[in-house]
Amino acid sequence: MTTALYDGNCVLCNQTRRIVTALDWGGRVEFMDIHDWKTVQARYPQLAFAAVMGEIHVDAGDGTLLRGFAGMRRLLRDLPLGYPLWLALHLPGMNWLGPKLYASIARRRYQINRLFGADWCDGGTCHLPDRR
Predict the structure, then answer these.
(1) Which residues contact 12 (CB under 8 A, 6 or more apart)?
(2) How far is C-alpha 10 from the geometric centre of its chain's CA atoms?
(3) How far, in Å, CA of 36 to CA of 7, rounded?
(4) How many angstroms separate the CA atoms of 100 and 83, rounded?
(5) Cβ-Cβ contacts under 8 Å for 22 (sequence gap 6 or more)
(6) What is the rounded CA–CA span in Å between residue 108 and residue 70?
(7) Whole-angstrom Cα distance, residue 44 to residue 4?
(8) What pTM value is reported for the model?
(9) pLDDT tens digits for the chain (132 residues)?
């Protein structure tokens, strides 16, 4: 089974979870909200909250942890309708472009959340770890 660690306070992340769950006809993907940190830490003691908060982490089922774009691409492989997109994300140039685009969206996800009317920020400000 593939396990995805996601930010349950993020509108984009929750929408991604809903779409993947709807397309996961074989029940191959499990989602764990990182805000239930005790449960996440029990299974993945090697992870730090700040790192997981910065981008999705996907356990490919064999203990391999993939982050960010590579993790999202791996999720698509488990979905019957996601497989063509998984193939497209392996086209030349995607290993360069994909991570940059993913990182840009991940860094701004709480700002994007506000566009959808969801303000999950304490005191009006959001802070994600600087991953540069």
Answers:
(1) 105, 109, 112, 113
(2) 10
(3) 10
(4) 22
(5) none
(6) 19
(7) 12
(8) 0.79
(9) 999 999 888 878 888 899 899 999 999 999 999 999 999 999 999 999 988 888 899 999 988 999 999 999 999 998 988 889 999 999 999 999 999 998 888 888 777 767 766 555 544 444 444 443
